[in-house]
Amino acid sequence: MESLKIKKVSIEAVNIKLEAPFTIAIGTKYNIENAFIRIELENGVEGFGEAAPLEPINGENQATALATLHACKDFLTGKRVSDYRSISRHLKTVFWAQVTARCAIEMALLDAFTKSLDLPLYKFLGGSEKRIETDYTVDIVPPPVARKNAAILAGKGYRMLKTKVGKNISEDIDRLLAIREGAPDCGITLDANQGFSPPEAVHFLEELEVNKLRPLLFEQPVVKYDLAGMKFVKDHTSVPVGADETVFTSADAVNVVRSGCADVINIKLMKSGIIEALDIAAMARSANINLMIGCMLETRLALSCAVHFAAGLGGFSFIDLDPHLNPDDDPFGGGPAFTDPVYVLSDDQAGIGVFRK
Ligand SMILES: [Mg+2]
């Protein structure tokens, strides 16, 4: 067991230019600005972890994530990776608000631990599935571009397309009609990112119905704290309603279950960390709430970890893990093999299976 002790911890900032700018409520991101941790065990095994902070979502940025990781360095050195739950619990009591940094540490611990066991992470998590099919997001672009992009994606084999809504109802509907025209056989999921009031959300769904559009999921229609508002939306539609920003912790998941405000919970490792995500998944499952998995602006490292998570647990109804980076620009290689739109898990790769290029 001595061999499972952490000998060395190193931390690194990574900035990578995005192929396509990523627009969020406070502005546009042109770069991935993440933080990485690498731990090395006495047995020589390395574990990698990534923090993908985004202020409006998890309240962190690259500087705070790096500062947190540096602050944890001494605490981690000498600990056994097999004690990942106790390490995670300790860190949560201190750095409760720094979830992406904690997620990076959990990722590195689990990567190193499962590598030491010579087991792929998804097997360690239960080995439910070997194949994970993702959707792809059609950006907020003019209808002709959306039509063309949707047709290209359908041609590549995507069967589920996601798009953001909630800024302008008629523009949203025009874009959705264009997506359907371009990819008539694809399912469509919508993400409002808290953009509607409860009555607006219901009105929007009515307008979709007039246009014979039926999404497979309506994610986060209203502001994250408004569980009653989300319940109002759910009570006025048969379209499944998803909670994303509403659920960061297992306590949030309890509130969703108690209020009956959502049909689906979107798990993102960067919202809850990996250990707490296991609790959220268990709670959703017990309450007949479907599972979704999503991601932030992540490199192949964190994205591969999410693929292992979903494949290990199994039963995710919605997979939103489309890569943001061209493989050539990615600082990590390896991991589950990806051919649009499917990730295939390999039994030959221990841990998360990625390597630093
Ligand atoms: Mg979302």
Largest sheet: 8 strands, parallel
Distance between the termini: 29 Å
What proportion of the residues form beta strands (DSSP E)? 15-25%
CATH topology of the largest domain, what is it called?
TIM Barrel
- Percentage of residues assigned to helices: 40-55%
Strand order of the largest sheet: 5-6-7-8-9-10-11-12
Catalogue the unreliable spans. none
CATH architecture of the largest domain: Alpha-Beta Barrel
Q: What Rg do the Cα atoms give?
A: 20 Å
**CATH level-four homologous superfamily name of the largest domain:** Enolase-like C-terminal domain
User: Can you tell me the CATH class of the largest domain?
Assistant: Alpha Beta
Total strands: 16
Which ligands occur here? magnesium ion
Helical stretch tally:
13
Number of domains: 2
Structural notes for this entry:
- The chain is of the alpha/beta class.
- It has 2 domains: 2-118, 2-Layer Sandwich (Enolase-like, domain 1); 122-356, Alpha-Beta Barrel (TIM Barrel), CATH 3.20.20.120.
- It has 13 helices and 16 strands.
- The strands form 4 sheets. Strands 5-6-7-8-9-10-11-12 form an 8-stranded parallel sheet.
- A hairpin with a 4-residue loop joins β2 (27-41) and β3 (46-51).
- The longest helix has 18 residues, at 99-116.
- It starts with 5 loop residues before the first strand and ends with a strand.
- The structure holds magnesium ion.
- Magnesium ion is lined by residues 191, 193, 219-220, 244, 266, 294.
